[in-house]
TrEMBL record:
Residues 1-32 are annotated as: Disordered. This is 3-methyladenine DNA glycosylase.
């Protein structure tokens, strides 16, 4: 149970925590500006800034006080004689999603991390592409088109994450040692992958009102930090935006990438376990609720 002063304090803390990302995003949109690094957190990942800022308690927390009725304006909250809480029973569509996500998270957690991909997925996305057709055409390539293609051809590409692989150029796909599909995602996702780590944020917000905002915020901050490494190791020149490159075309750069990748893997592991525990709890509650009806 949280009294109104308690939940309002948590609400304010969460909103303050998220605004260093949400406010600049909203300001850029109002000016029609794009940010090739940070916009990804709001375009590829679909949670709007306003919802990222919005605090929610998660399951098993009763909110009390005069201000609680505004939670009833949101989907997924119910009122009792004692207060308001999030309904812990997942609707059928969300329950099906939750079973799949839980199996994906558990499979990923069961595998050792692989740290030898060196971020080449971003390079494979521009391999042999006309310069005006690359994903971030406004950014120059550090090594030019020819130099970028040479790096792709000189190193083994070992990308196992489908949502990165699907953006490879047609010429780059046969160069990948793996050919991931949506159907093989549970078999191939592994905890060392930067995109698998960022996706913890997606698996958090997919639970809607049933993910505690503190966990959502932890997953978002991980995704934001991982995204920076993802783009620093890319073939793009981001110096005008204040990002120094991780030069994975060199042995020293690959070692630096693997070191940071390992650190993110360690940081992601407890978040993955917290999500697994939450998904298990919600599915168990949903099954009990279904049986009682």
């Amino acid at each position: 149970m949280l009294t109104e002063p308690e939940w309002r304090a948590r609400e304010e803390a969460h909103t303050t925590r998220m605004r260093p990302w949400t406010e600049p995003r909203q300001e850029r949109r109002s000016r029609g500006e794009k940010h090739p690094v940070l916009d990804f957190l709001f375009t590829y990942y679909s949670l709007p800034p306003s919802q990222l800022e919005r605090w929610q308690p998660g399951p098993g927390v009763l909110l009390t006080g005069e201000g609680i009725r505004r939670f009833l304006d949101r989907t997924g909250y119910v009122e009792t004689a004692d207060g308001v809480h999030a309904d812990p029973v997942l609707p059928p569509k969300r329950a099906r999603m939750a079973r799949y996500v839980l199996s994906l998270l558990e499979a990923t957690a069961s595998r050792p991390p692989r740290l030898n991909c060196f971020g080449l997925h971003e390079w494979a996305m521009v391999y042999r592409h006309p310069p005006d057709q690359v994903r971030h055409a406004q950014l120059p390539l550090r090594l030019g088109s020819g130099g970028t293609d040479d790096v792709v051809q000189s190193l083994d590409i070992r990308c196992g994450h489908y949502d990165a692989f699907r953006f490879f150029t047609e010429q780059a796909r046969p160069l990948n040692t793996l050919q991931p599909t949506r159907e093989t995602q549970r078999d191939l996702d592994q905890p060392g992958c930067l995109h698998v780590g960022m996706d913890l944020y997606k698996w958090a917000y997919k639970l809607g009102p049933l993910v505690p905002s503190e966990l959502l915020g932890d997953c978002f901050e991980l995704a934001a930090d991982v995204r920076v490494l993802d783009m620093r190791a890319s073939p793009y020149d981001l110096s005008d935006l204040g990002y120094s490159p991780v030069r994975i075309e060199t042995a020293a750069g690959r070692a630096e990438y693997a070191r940071q990748q390992a650190a993110f893997t360690r940081r992601a592991a407890p978040l993955r376990e917290r999500l697994i525990a939450l998904y298990r709890e919600l599915l168990a509650t949903t099954e009990v609720g279904s049986e009682s009806h």
